[in-house]
Structures are given as C-alpha cells and as structure tokens.
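Tutorial, part two.
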Amino acid sequence: MKIPQAGFYPFWFWNGVQEESEIIYQLNEIADSGCKGFALHSRKGNQIPYLSDRWLDLVEFTCEEASKRNLKVWLYDEDGFPSGNAGMRVQKNRTDLLQKSLHFSVVPSDPEITAFASFSADGTTVVSEKELTPGTPVLRFELHLNPEHVDTLSPDTVKYFLNLNHELYAKRIGRFFGNTVEAVYTDDESFLVWYENSFVWSEALENELGSSYRNHLGKLVIDQPGSAEFRKKYYRAAQKLFIENFIKPQQKWCHDHDLVYLGHLCGDEGPRSRTVKNYCSPEPYYLAEDIPSVDDYLLDMRDLGYLKRPYTGDEYRINPCGLERCYPLYTYLSASSVANRSGVKQVSSETWAFLGWNMPVEFLEPQTLFEIAMGQTLLTPHAFYYTLKGEAEQDCPPSYFIQQPYWQMLKKRLPVWSRLAERIEAMQRMPETVLIVPDVLIAMQNGATLTGNPDKLAEADLMLQNLILQMMRRHIDFDLIEEVQIQTSVRDGSVLNAGKMCYTNIVYCTALPLSEQTTAKIAGMNIFGESDLDSIPHPATFPEELLVVKRLKNNGSNSWFLQNLSGEPMKLYCSFPEPNLFIVDPITETAVFRGDAFPETFTLPHGKVLLLEKEWNGKILEFNKSVFAPLGEELPLRLQNKLGDLVKQGLAGKTGNFDYRAEFDGSARILELSMTGGVAEVEINGKIAGICWGSDTIAIADFVQTGSNELVVHFANTAGNQYGKKDTPFGIETIKIFK
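Running the prediction step on this input gives:
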C-alpha cells in the first residue's frame, strides 16, 4: 500500500450516459490539467445503473485508459452518499440492517401505545405508562427505523456491504489494484445520519452497554446527576462499535487488496451538537483511516476571515445554507494533528464543495492556498461533472471542469497549486505545544442540543474555538488532541509522547474542566490557560491576521508559509523569524528578496502567499521589479475595447472567452488588472506573461520591448452566468500598466 502523491484528485461525477469516446476525451483533459488522478463517483442523474455489468465495463475501460495516462483511480464506494448502502441494496435486501434511532419527546402518557422506554417528565424515573393516569406528562423514547441508511454499529452490515459493493470491483478490476487503482474513498460516514435529531440505537450498542442502560436514557435528554458520565459512556460505546465494526473492516478489506482507505465523516464541519450525535468525536475515526480526511463543505468564508472569527455561518459564506457555527480552524487542525502524530503527514480534503454556480471564481486560489497551508495536501475538488444535462445541472454545483469557460486557465493553475502541495507534504510540522479538546463537550450533549436550541454546549464550544483562534493569531505552532487520547500517550518526564510527536507545552480551556485522570497525567508539565498564551514561544512580530505555518525540511532547515487573511493589502515591516532568508513567491516560483527583514515598502496583497526559505536555487527577481514593491508611473494605454460590466453591454446569460486588446509604448514593470466574475490570461507581444486569478498584478518586465507593445487580455467568465443567476456582473473594469 502506497500513500498517494500530493496534488489533485477531483470527484469525477458520472451523472449521465457515459460512453467510451467521451470518457477518453475527459480523461485527456484531466491528465492535461496536471491532476494526479480522480475519484470515480456515481452521482445524481447517472443513467448507467450502479454496479451493473455496463457500469463495471465502463469502470474497467476507464482504468485501462487511466493507466495509459499515468492517472490514479480512487473508487468512490457508493452510489451517492452516505457510504455503506451499496446503492440502497443493503437495506432493501436486509431490512434487519436498517439504521435505528431513538426519538424522544415529552408528551401525555398513552397506555395503549408501547414505548421503547418511558420516564417521568424530568427524566429521572423509569415509569410504566400502563400504571399512570392517561395524559400524565412523560418523556418517551420510540424506536425509529430509517430506510435511507444502515446500522453502522452492527458487524453484519459491513460484511454485507463489502460483499455487494467492493467485491464486485475486486472481481472485475482487481488486476489494477495497487497500481492504477490506489484508493477507496468513503463519504459522509457516521453512526447516525445528519438530519436525525435523535440518539443512535442498535442491538450491538445494547449488548455493549448492557440491557440496564435503558433505565438511564433519561440522562441523555435532561441534565441530572450522573448525566455527564452516562453520556460519555454512551457516545464512546457507539463510537467504539462504529470504528471497530464498520470502519476498520473496510480499512482491512482495502489493505488486503493493496488499497488506501480514506474519506470523511458526516458533519465534520460542526456545529458540535451535530458532530457528537453523528460520530461522537473525530480523532478515533482519523486514526482508523490511512489518511485523515475532511470535507470543506460549509467551512468557507468569502472574505477569508479565518483569523477574524472562530466560526463561519450564513453571514460569511458564499452560498448560505442555513447552518451556523461551523469550525474551519478546528476541522483542519484536528485532521492535520492526527496526520502529524501518525507520521503520514498528509490530509485529504474534499474541497470547493457546494459554492453555487455564481461562486466568485477569484475565491478558489486563496482558499486552496489556505487549505494547503493547513496541511490539506490531497485535494479533491467537488467536482468535475461528466455532464450538466437534466437534473445533474443543479446537483451541488458548480462543476469546475470542461463546462467552465475558464477551464483552460484552471488547467494551467492546477499544476502550480499541486507543486505547492508537494512542497508542503515534503516537510513536517513539529509543534511543541498541544491543545486538549475536553471530553466535557460530549457530556454536554442533551435533548435541547439536538433540537437546535441555544444551550451550554454551544457556549462551551465557543470558548474552545476562541482559544484556537487566539493561538492561531499569535502564530503559536500547536496540535489538537482529544482528551481520551491523552491516556494512550506516554509521559516521559516533562514531555508527552503521542505517536510520533513530542509535546512539552499543554494548553487547555480553563473554563472546561479536564478529568482527574487527565490532570494527573499532565501534572508538572508546562501548562497554559487562556490568559497565559503570550508565555508560549511564538514569532510575535508578525501581524495577527497573517497566517503563519512553520515546517521543517529534511535537511533540518525551516520553511515558513505566510498568507494575508486580513481583507486588505498588508504592510510587512517585521523581521524574519530567522536571519538571511529568501522571500519566495510560490505562484511564480520566484525569489524576490533576501535578508533579515522585509523591505520597508513591502506589501502583501490580500489572499496572497509567500514562503520564507533558507535556501533557494530557482528564479530570482529584483524586489523593485516585483509585484510587492510600490508601483511606478502609469503608462498610457491605447485600448480597443470597452471596459466595464459585460452584462450591461447586452451579454446577460452569456458565457465564454472575451479578448481585450491594447497597445502601450516603452518599458513597463507591472500590469494591474481589476475584474469581476472571471479569470484572465495576459499575453504581451505574443507571449503569455501570466494568469490573473481575480483582480491581480503580474510582473511583465521580461515580456516588454522597446517601442510599441501589443497586449491581449484573454478573459473567461464562469458557467454561473448560464446555469445560475444570469445577470451576475462580469468583465474587466480597468487595465493599467506601470513602470
């Protein structure tokens, strides 16, 4: 089993009538874009029955053609999502494997209708409704069967699922396993589906807890003596069965077939009330995978304000979805922390998820760079669509593939982002500080939490998220660790050894108490609370809204990744964390300065990234010729096109490529482009000078000549102007040339 190479592996949505000739064309496009492979994904609108002979014929054909192009294939393990159903075959054939849950409510007692369990209205006492006066308020639990998913706690479920699903692939394309086919991608895993506001139940869980657990169910709903311990016991038991009976058998099957097992949880973004009921906590799941995996669905902040606020919501998202308090920093850090401790170093991210057809395309580059900086180096864009015909058009858009007018430009950018992911993967984060995620958050999950009312769990989790945010703003290099994992760590004097990591500093939220066992384990170490953060070593000279990630190279030198997330151009007056470093622009792969501090006039535009490197053997550009230096005199431009919003020029609902032509005289250093709703490729005197991913500046000194210069700006808008809101503005607003 070989861990995949860092880079892009998009979901390839098979959502129409797939044909060999079109598969070859699209495979060529995927290969041309620099993607390392793809996750083959049956999706809404698919007309070829999943796992039918024709489906398997096409998958086999695709593997053969992918191998010719050195593309890796990841098998998405389901028809849609969540994984475990084999296209609904499991529950249709085995109704005994339907997912079960306990719905609860305080209602008038009814001696004629038998409940799974009944309690006094305050949840403290088990009652028999037959012995009560009809109409007495009681807390009732009723067993609910969900035909849309399966019992992920029962050991029989995964056996049946693997036999119906994975074994068919093994018989047909097993010869590709371990070479062309390198992984199985699993999706939206949980022990309770996301929309259920209830408690998971299974015969397996009852056997694990003992039949007397029914007498304690009231403690799950209403806070009372013993609730905290019972809730932790209940959710940890469900988690244990979920991991051991459902997840690990899938991983073993993959290993037996020389495949990597990866994929993400259902609801890993938050809020905490959803994550606890879905899967308890993420770390045991990440540890049961070969590569920790996350989903960036609902995590986006359109202003990139990840260092401004502790969580995102509809006020900040590109595509409002009605769900608040999702945790970007926590989600990314949890997975990357496990990757650190396991030594795998990589994290898989389902990225660019459900941003809508009118997603501003300029968001893609800084968001991608942010996720790479946070350790997500296996990137699976959601998604490359096979077709947009029929119902596929509005299935969790947009497509980032051939249907996009800017696809030819994205093809040139994906390799640039991939190289940065490869660079990050080749290094290691080595934090000495770890922040404990307390078990008390599980204990706070109660009935009010499940129904979505504000409660103490949300308030407690906000304390933790604020602590994470403040540590990030101080540029403290740290991991997260769940409290339950502290007990499996080894204390060696003043060092806590957890997997491959050695932590000397412990941080916890003082308002969220740790267990006595944990307190004893960390006693005598360097322990910090919210008020002590400035005492932890960190490069304090950096601005707070500058993302700073330190990584260690194999040669022992450090590399520093910096990204401006402030929302405006950032003046960097500070000294470097180490002397004699290169400032490297990883997008153009050019060093623009070497010294001990930033030049006085250095400006980092919003969303842009830099690397600080001890050694650099690549291209070098004088700082005063770079885009980070002040602009000089603006040169006159003889423009042949009308600038401004093309919608107002009669092109509403139109998509495609639009050329802007101009001429200018004399030497020039910088081109500045301001535009809306698209991407532009700049051509000067017949040579491509660069791509502007949204409003941007590029260095052009190497492309200009004495006398007259010909400028062509190739602008491409997005498919959103056709499939989404058709009057969304697009076009180039200004083109400026500077000495």
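The chain has a mean pLDDT of 96. In part three we will examine how such features are distributed along the chain.
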